[in-house]
Request: fold
Amino acid sequence: MLAHCLAALALCNEPGKWSNWDQLQTCRYSGFYHPDTDGTLSQIVNDARRGGRSVKVVGAGHSFSPIALLSEEAGRAEGVMVSIDALKELIYVRGSAGVARVQAGIRIKDLNEQLFAHGYALENMGAIAEQSLAGATQTGTHGTGKGIQSMSGAVLAMQILTADGHFVNVDASNKDLFEAARVGLGAFGVVVDMTVNIVPRWKLKRTVVPYDLDALRQQLPALRKQYDRMQWFYTPHTKNATLLLREDAPLNATIVPCWTEPGTPERQRATYHPVFGYVGNDGAVGPNQTCLDWSYKALTRQEDHKELYTEMEYFLPVDKEDVVIKEFLAYQASIEDTYGKLCRESTLGTCSLFTGVRYVAADDIWLSPMYGRDTAVVSFIGFGKPGQTCPPVIFAAYAEGLAGIARKHGGRPHWGKMNWATSAYLAPQYPRFDDFRKMRALQDPTGMFFNAYLERTLGS
Reply:
């Protein structure tokens, strides 16, 4: 039923059920809509308003939190979901100004290819490129880089369809709305198109270096000073750590591909790695793995993960990184004989664990987790297998431990990744929290784009 509606780009008034990428967040809808014009999108929102229905917009469904879900609310008709996947046009590229305007439903991987064809690139992005541009920026998606802001920091302007059915242009001329809506959590309306910063396309050398965990932690201060784009991770309950570096390379440098094409001899020789995708020859992060390619291929995975996984991230002041990792390591050791054993033995299902750290520059976006401070981002991931994520009870045992530790040190959770944070905790962490709440209420007074997750994290 849903596939038929999507294929026809039709207005689908039949009820159904939606789930996110890891299949743990689900909700029911009274209609699922897939507009391919701004006019059709406006009709959907206006009809929902007249019918007293909630509206939630979905892209790739790559948020692990319940941010995209409809909620069953007393006094409100069952809600509708809207995919803006068909709104994916690159409207223009103005290289002399360093900007591109694009419809917000475009997947990042497709935007990368289209910008590349024009000779340009995004400066930063996350580890995968499957998300819609709207979804990634509305939740503060980031990559890694000293002095490099999140993807939301690259947003210069937006057009938003608000709850009253009007298209509103949002940019720095209306600074308060602009700084609220750039990480707007989908709470201000439907982001229809965006103007973003772009840079001339360039090449990056990516190097993966195996490390002993203790040795790497000792060297981190020097490494952070030396490298602009670095991140690192380790496998819990082991001393196995990995340093990942990306360095600018000359435009005339010979490409050593970071991606391998399906069906080629290179792909046949490669081995699948859960973090990097397909990596060269022996596949192990044993000897250093090095590639040199165009920036978007060195920054992102070629394709999404084979196995499902669930993720949590906490954003911390950079100077809190070491103490949080130290405490998290101790916590992980304390549950190794219980949940670590369950994971190793696959008693509850396939399971492998990951802890990583990335770095992002400060910004002034009201609910950006990087607001006002340079940030270290600590991530915990529970990997499962194709079709099934890490057993939730195992993921929760580790993730709740990380959350408790991070909160002691002023951590802010990623809005689009699994978290249990409440407005009581979050309000003191964001100096403009109350201003955001007031702005949201002004733009959406009836709560058309609100849901239970936003009520928990922002307050009613």
Q: What stands out?
A: The CA atoms of residues 127 and 300 lie 5 Å apart.
